[in-house]
């Protein structure tokens, strides 16, 4: 799996989380290497605009790779950059999902800490114990127009906390900081990625 280092935090945590699940990790800051990646992970603690500045040089080709079915996981900011635009920064996103990212409407922003996630029947949550909480650190949320919302969370308002279309997945929370349920979800993503080949 190729983990993209586009100047955001949390690279160590997500790399270690995926390694615990049996993945071989390659962390790269060279965006051209994404075009040959068998599986892409966009981690996330940072700003939409800064992340997109790093991705923009390969954006058309990257979008095509994802459209062709390259397994991709976006985490927090990484989920947000998969959308068309964000209120956080001018300029477009990757556009793999139609929709936009907007500021979370809550009394206290950012949302920091553990929260409930309500999910339906989807492989990404296979064998994750019902009632499990996940760790969030976000000020913005995604509003998809064509993505399949597979999980939702309540914090000031109800918003999608996980989306999936085939091998293209996004989660607003941080599975790598969410203990055993998070590791189970990462293992499930790896199974989805393997099944898409």
Topology:
Layout lengths: L1 E3 L6 H10 L5 E3 L11 E3 L5 H8 L3 H9 L4 E4 L1 H4 L4 E2 L2 E4 L6 E5 L7 E6 L1 E2 L13 E6 L1 E5 L3 E7 L3 E8 L2 E4 L7 H17 L2
Parallel strand pairs: 1-2, 1-3, 3-4, 4-14, 5-7
Antiparallel strand pairs: 5-6, 7-11, 8-10, 9-12, 12-13, 13-14
Number of strands: 14
Largest sheet: 8 strands, mixed
Provide mean pLDDT, rounded. Answer: 93
Using the CA coordinates, give the radius of gyration: 15 Å
What would you call the quaternary organization?
single chain
Low-confidence stretches: none
- What is the helix content? 10-25%
Question: Which architecture name does CATH use?
Answer: 3-Layer(aba) Sandwich
Distance N terminus to C terminus?
Answer: 13 Å
Count of spatially separate domains: 1
Order of strands, widest sheet: 2-1-3-4-14-13-12-9
DSSP summary: helix tally:
5
